Amino acid sequence: MKHHLSPEQISGDFYSRRFEQGPDEDTLILNMGPQHPSTHGVLRIILALDGEYIMRAEPVLGYLHRMHEAMAEHRTYLGYLPNMGRVDYLHAVAWNWAYVGAVERLGGIEVPRRAEYIRVITCELNRISSHLLWWGAYLLDLGAFTPIMYAFDDREIILDLLQSVSGSRLTYSFLRPGGVAFDLPDTFLDEVKAFIPHMRARLPMYKALVTDNTILRHRCEEVGDLPLEMCRRYGATGPVVRGSGMAYDVRRAEPYGVYPELEFEIPTENSQDAMGRYLVRMGELEQCLNILEQAVQAIPEGEHLIKGAPKPRWKAPVGETYFAVEGARGKIGVHLVSDGSSTPYRCKLRAPGFSNLSLFAELAEGTLLADAVSILGSLDLVIPEIDR
Amino acid sequence: MNDDVFAGIPVLLEARPDRNRSGLLRDLYLIPEGIVPAVERLFAAGYHLEDISGLDTKDGILVSYHFDHFEKPGRIALRVLSPHDTPKVPSIANIFDGAQWHERELSDFYGVVFEGNPNPTPLLLPATDVTTPLRKAEASRVSLGDLIDPGEIVQMDPRFDYFAPKDNTDAESKEAEA
After folding, report:
1. pTM, entire model
2. A339 and B142 in contact by Cβ < 8 A?
């Protein structure tokens, strides 16, 4: 039968031609993505399948690459801040924090204590909303349509809270070098105090409905066995490394803000499978509530922004800094270099998802395609952060 | 922190930066041939690779490797300065598998060639459109000494003189070391 397709249409693009070894009767080359409901964004993974088993996998990135690092070199220090919310839209406050923290280090800028507590409260609320979306979307990937509805119900309360203080529902540009953009509305702390017991009361329902569910456990237990040594080889951090037994959290390893004054545990699991990573994040939901409870009691009166905080055309002193925070996905790093002008000379964004995804090709070898979906979900990927 | 982790590796400059400002515990500038042995030492000592970051300066393209440790936190930066015309650095992807992607990203953005990278294809930019977008126009480049303050210089090869002394005291102590 005569093909109506050109040779390029048959063989694909540069990456699929490079991936494919040649005709093989037993292997199917499949593109998972870039349009796919379970790749959590615009991610393409080329797979060589023997039946349902993955012989080889190669992620192909760049479908959401917007060159954020070049944008930094063409914006003022304050003008670049909104970019941070678009890097990881699920934990925008953490990316805000990583960036303003780097700017504060370069500029020797202090932050008032009230602003530090506002940062902790908004960052931990954001972490909960990020984990809730991860949880609902993960279950959706595995074929369960109900949990995401409950997760988004709770998430809506957090979005309303953060909107009341920042003006945004999702891509917050709320922090500033020297503090935060706005002080808290009068009712905010009471509303957070009401949210904490509400969320605590929901967690047992999540556990009974989902965590203890036999189908979820079969989809996650012993899936994606990730030894700690492999995490180290790829630089994986966050719940991925904590699910493999290492209690590494930037809030304790490289303390910043007022986290040293707050007590919280670092949930860690030793099973090193998808279930371990799942349980770490569920444990972190409880710890976020723990931190919030302390922060809303301890927050002092005072300024929300230091006097003399950088104005739009502010020039950073010459120098270089690296500042890291613990995001929902792992260690977020900003490597900032200033030549003394009003635009950054260099702003390198270290995304935790970039390192976490890089281990997928090795981790997915030999697994079932359905298990690969579970593995991807257990890594909690946000593609805009990976591509930047 | 074991001070001997880099013993025997030729170092162009070693510094102890202002940790509060720079975020670094140790900062080492190496010749390209030194990066693989240095990284092997860090791997053996339990470090993980955070990222590899590029910087286009008047003196060349600075490739900065950031390492940290899960159990003994303290960031270490290893640096290699590579000429603009043919920037080539040995790959460390055979030691830290995660370096493959970081190196490919630097190749995309700066055109640096990492010799020995197992998959030297574009990572983020289109395969057919090689533009090295983070390279600066020659007139916009700034010299290394006008960007980075290394802090307290522990040892320095006199050939690696990009960081001019801040005051007479530094110049005297460096003369005493040389």
Report:
1. 0.92
2. yes
